[in-house]
Write a structure and sequence with these properties.
Length: 440
């Protein structure tokens, strides 16, 4: 038996009955067994004379008929359902069944070409095909149906992300991903995107079938109104970064979509949220977990991507996902740095050249500690002293904390270190700089 992918279409009412009857007829007699049938969706006709919209879908059959015999069976079925022979090319039809893929066979015969020549260019064919046979491989292009669908350009021929702003639009997008059995990757951001964000998006593009990036300056996680107000908002540039990084959809809701009138819920991770960064910025992590939880609920991703740059945030989010049983893998990726070593951050644009130079003392401190670690130094005090040295010597920095903690519990480590997270935070002119290294 060979697995065959068929395209289904009808634009003469009753369209769905025509398709379902044809599938019944197709199974009559030996040699064809019907497998999965996709959802049937309405699409506008392509080419031909003016005519009604199509209902399109796809199905899988198992067959021991040879390709030509299967085609003859299909043509007999189409006639039985009422399709007139000799109809106008690309004209209206009661039912139209195309052999899209026949196992891994390549067929070039009069009246029969498999894989179907237009399989790779038509969204209305590839979408239902991916739903029932996303794993089937095009024998010439060596790409799966799912990959072919993913590579399909939009109408302008560019891969520009769609921008969604409402919860309903977001849910519809997720539903269509689910229908197509696509995995979804989420990259939550506050915009003003840089190469650090792009690294998360690119990795999501590699690992998930569809990527949604959220761009939302979350008022709940700001402790000072002035900081919220001056936070950079650069949506147009951000969309270019998203397009180049493989993002399919950008979710950029206004605050009232995320927090409509009457919103009263707070998600809070006890303990982990109130130490270190949480002690300096009370309420900050409650804002983060509340918004991340809501984004996860709206986008239902298989994986969500975060930067190690905000190390405590990753610990808090991981704990929340675990505690609440949210079925989403949290992926944490390394900090991306500018050539001088400073960790990239949307707020770095507010630094003067002198402030930036002062900020680099944090990086020197972390590197000194890393160097000692590589030389087998395992004493917490010595590692911390190495990190603090350059920071204390830099008058342009006001440190908030420099600590060595357990990477999972954030509890301070004293004495010998097996694995540690060295966290630094300091005020530098108009911004606070955060950085860290993992030791071990
Ligand atoms: P933000 O827009 O600052 O909320 O950051 C969105 C995501 O990007 C968070 O998961 C950050 O940790 C991550 N991120 C920010 N800066 C960097 C960076 N320099 N390298 C890697 N990831 C980053």
């Amino acid at each position: 038996m060979t697995r065959v992918l068929l395209g289904l279409g009808s634009n003469v009412e009753p369209r769905e009955d025509h398709i379902r009857t044809a599938l019944d007829f197709l199974q009559e007699g030996d040699g064809v067994r019907l497998g999965a049938v996709s959802a049937l969706t309405v699409t506008a006709p392509v080419g031909g004379p003016p005519q009604g919209d199509y209902l399109n879908g796809a199905c899988v059959v198992e067959t021991d008929l040879a390709p030509r015999d299967l085609m003859l069976r299909i043509q007999a079925v189409e006639r039985r359902v009422g399709r007139q022979s000799g109809t106008v090319r690309w004209g209206p039809r009661e039912v139209d069944i195309d052999i899209l893929l026949y196992g891994d066979r390549v067929v070039h015969q009069p009246g029969l070409v498999v894989p179907h020549p237009r399989l790779t260019t038509r969204r209305f064919v590839l979408e239902p095909a991916a739903e029932v046979a996303g794993d089937m491989v095009h024998p010439v292009l060596r790409r799966s149906v799912r990959e072919l669908l993913r590579a399909l350009p939009d109408r302008e021929g560019r891969r520009t992300p769609r921008v969604l702003t409402t919860a309903d639009e977001m849910r519809d997008w997720v539903k269509s991903c689910r229908r197509n059995r696509f995995t979804v990757g989420l990259v939550p951001t506050m915009g003003a995107l840089h190469a650090g964000h792009a690294s998360l998006m690119t990795q999501a593009y590699r690992e998930a079938d569809r990527v949604v990036a959220s761009i939302f300056v979350n008022p709940l996680q700001f402790d000072a109104a002035s900081d919220l107000q001056r936070y950079p908002r650069t949506l147009e540039d951000d969309l270019l970064v998203c397009a180049e990084s493989g993002v399919d959809t950008v979710f950029a809701p206004p605050p009232e979509v995320m927090f409509p009138p009457g919103f009263r819920t707070k998600v809070s991770v006890d303990g982990l949220s109130t130490v270190l960064e949480g002690a300096v910025r009370p309420g900050h992590f409650d804002g983060v977990t509340t918004v991340v939880c809501k984004l996860l609920a709206l986008t239902l991703p298989d994986r969500a991507y975060f930067g190690q740059k905000d190390a405590q945030q990753t610990v808090v989010v991981r704990r929340m996902v675990k505690d609440l049983g949210i079925p989403c893998d949290i992926v944490v990726l390394p900090t991306v740095r500018d050539p001088d070593g400073l960790a990239m951050s949307s707020r770095n644009r507010f630094l003067s050249p002198e402030e930036r130079a002062a900020g680099l003392a944090l990086v020197r401190g972390l590197r000194a500690a890393e160097g000692l670690w590589r030389e087998e130094q395992r004493d917490a005090g010595a590692l911390l002293a190495a990190a603090k040295g350059p920071v204390d010597a830099e008058p342009g920095l006001v440190p908030d904390y420099i600590v060595l903690v357990d990477p999972d519990t954030l509890e301070p480590i004293e004495g010998p270190v097996r694995r540690g997270l060295l966290l630094v935070a300091a005020r530098c002119g108009p911004v606070r700089l955060l950085d860290n290294v993992v030791l071990g």
